[in-house]
Amino acid sequence: MNLQTIRILAAALGLLLGLGQSPAQDLPPETPYAPARMRPLYALKKAGNTSLFQGNRQKRNYFEGWYFKMVAPDGASIISVIPGIALSEDGQEQHAFIQIIDGLTTETSYHRFPMEAFAYSRKTFAIRIGNNYFSRDSLHLDLQDGQRRVHGSVRMHETIPYRSGRLLNPGIMGWYRFVPFMECYHGVVSLSHRLSGVLTINGKRHDFHAGAGYIEKDWGSSMPSAWIWMQSNNFSSPGSSLMLSIADIPWLGKSFTGFLGFFYHEGEIYHFATYRPTKLQLDILSDHQLQIHIQNRRHRLLLTVTSSQTGLLQAPVAGSMDRRIPESIDASIDLTLLDRDGKVLLKDSTRIAGLEMVGDFRQLAGLLK
Question: Is the full-model pTM beyond 0.85?
Answer without folding.
Answer: yes
